[in-house]
UniProtKB/TrEMBL annotation:
GO molecular function: calcium-dependent phospholipid binding
Organism: Rhipidura dahli
Record bears the keyword Repeat: yes
InterPro entries: C2_dom, C2_domain_sf, C2B_Copine, Copine, Copine_C, VWF_A, vWFA_dom_sf
One cellular component term from this protein's GO annotations in UniProt: plasma membrane
PANTHER family, sorted: COPINE, COPINE-7
Gene this protein is translated from: Cpne7
Protein name (Swiss-Prot/TrEMBL): CPNE7 protein
Length: 523
């Protein structure tokens, strides 16, 4: 979320930087008649989603691998930002995956690709296109179908935990290898795959791993929408055996909250007709259901939340010696350095939303007194019990007082400060009132050393009432910051978990300082 603001009383709109109208779009992908690249089995397809950025194709995300299937329906849901006034080019590439080696990019692994724009998919809602090999050659009769759904509002997500009992045994020499699929039934009676669990081997009473899905994906945020749940016996050649199915709604699922459990008979319609004493093909139990509502920055503001700002300043050696006029931290008695300019410009916007006008002010990457050990989250007023300063002017004064006392060092570790603010936000959320929203303003000169830890910290923070604004100071390479922003795709933790909501906004100060507050994108 981005906080609106201006640097004067009535900021002038900037014609060079119009405010983008943004919404989120979910894309579901399936293919038909894929080429068979494998000798003994069928191809094991995986889809890569690429987006064009500055003339280059960049991988945004990829689907799961579906074993031995020429007509795959992928469970993976791709989420992309949609700016209706921009032409956003997408490319879908289908590859035959090879086990541990992953998805190759060799010509013999390539099953075909196609290009389109986000706008085309959104306008048509369902697009089916032929797949092409290199040099425009058709990939046989292969097609790819992309279904889009605009996310209207974000009502959060649900965590579900299923198990089954006494499922039918479909295997001759061992027990069934069951997995569960959940489908949403849309108004036109078509079915959209919502989730596919992992396979539990050789077990007629499997317990599947708990999983999270958005309420938008599960039921279009309509509690009475019908859902179809199907249990299969996994087959490595792709010919899965049908065990049974049941129908339910999210409304019915909610009975499983707390200590309660909900269960359904898993039915095979053919057996029901043929077998006189047929009862079921097993029972599926919903062990637990947790609903997590997701609130936007605006929801918190409109709900009367107080905004609490924390400023974090990069004191690593890459900024240059403060005694040198080339340093971004240069102590100049006649004019503010780059960090002070950025602090005042952005801080004055933020200050409007903070009722008590007190800012927590932290530094990172410096050796600090008395022992001159490196710290990645120290109070720049050197008062660990109260790191708050009175307004932006108080932060400026603490910064100027702190600079001569510290030694610029490194590395550029950002995760500790994100985690520190996140802990305070988490404590606040545990109170019933949850009356504060936390914004962390990070001023830095560029490359992040602890990128993996920072990504993990941001994913964790995305579940909390918290946003992060990163302002890039100077002319360094800000590639890391753009990755953290997530505008070219969904930011993920090192383990692949996506952010719950987009909480990071990156702005290079060299661009920011030349436009008015209305055009900075803090909204």
């Amino acid at each position: 979320p981005r906080a609106p603001g201006g640097m004067g009383d009535v900021p002038e709109p900037c014609p060079q930087a119009p405010l983008a109208v943004l919404s989120k779009v979910e894309l579901r992908v399936s293919c038909k008649h894929l080429l068979d690249r494998d000798t003994l089995n069928k191809s094991d397809p995986c889809v890569l989603l690429l987006m064009q950025s500055q003339g280059q194709w960049m991988e945004v995300d990829r689907s799961e691998v579906i074993k031995s299937n020429l007509n795959p329906v992928f469970a993976k849901i791709f989420t992309v930002d949609y700016y209706f006034e921009e032409v956003q080019k997408l490319r879908f590439e289908v590859y035959d995956s090879h086990g541990q080696a992953g998805v190759g990019t060799h010509d013999d692994d390539f099953l075909g690709g196609t290009e389109c724009t986000v706008g085309q998919i959104v306008a048509q809602k369902r697009v089916t296109k032929p797949l092409f090999l290199k040099y425009g050659k058709f990939a046989g009769k292969s097609t790819i179908t992309i279904i889009s759904e605009e996310i209207s509002g974000n009502n959060g997500y649900v965590e579900l935990a299923f198990r089954a009992k006494k499922l039918d045994d479909k295997d001759l020499f061992s027990k069934s290898d069951p997995f569960l699929e959940i489908y949403r039934i849309d108004d036109d009676r078509s079915e959209q795959l919502v989730y596919r669990t992992e396979v539990v081997k050789n077990n007629l009473s499997p317990i599947w791993e708990p999983f999270k899905v958005s309420l938008n994906s599960l039921c279009s945020c309509e509690e009475k929408r019908k859902l179809r749940c199907v249990v299969w016996d996994y087959d490595s050649r792709g010919k899965h055996d049908f065990i049974g199915e049941f129908f339910t709604t999210f409304e019915e699922m909610q009975k499983a909250m707390g200590e309660n459990k909900v269960q359904w008979d898993c039915m095979n319609p053919k057996y029901k007709i043929k077998k006189r004493n047929y009862k079921n093909s097993g029972v599926v139990v919903l062990l637990d259901l947790k609903i997590h509502r997701v609130y936007s920055f605006l929801d918190y503001i409109m709900g009367g939340c107080q905004i609490h700002f924390t400023v974090a300043i990069d004191f690593t050696a890459s900024n240059g010696d403060p005694r040198n006029s080339c340093s971004l931290h240069y102590i100049n008695p006649y004019q503010p350095n780059e960090y002070l300019k950025a602090l005042v410009a952005v801080g004055e916007i933020c200050q409007d939303y903070d009722s008590d006008k007190k800012f927590s002010a932290l530094g990172f990457g410096a050796r600090i007194p008395p022992k001159y050990e490196v710290s990645h989250d120290f109070a720049i007023n050197f008062n660990p019990d109260n790191d708050e300063c009175e307004g932006i002017q108080g932060v400026v004064e603490s910064y100027q007082s702190c600079l001569p006392k510290i030694q610029l060092y490194g590395p550029t570790n950002v995760a500790p400060i994100i985690s520190k603010v996140a802990r305070v936000a988490a404590d606040e959320e545990r109170t019933k009132e949850a009356s504060q929203y936390f914004i962390l303003l990070i001023l830095t000169d560029g490359v992040v050393t602890d990128m993996a830890d920072t990504r993990e910290a941001i994913v964790r923070a995305s579940y909390l009432p918290m946003s992060i604004i990163i302002v890039g100071v100077g002319n360094a390479d800000f590639t890391d910051m753009q990755i953290l922003d997530g505008d070219d795709g969904v930011l993920r933790s090192p383990k692949g978990e996506p952010v719950l909501r987009d909480i990071v906004q990156f702005v290079p100060f060299r661009e920011f300082k030349n436009v008015s507050g209305a055009a900075t994108g803090f909204c």
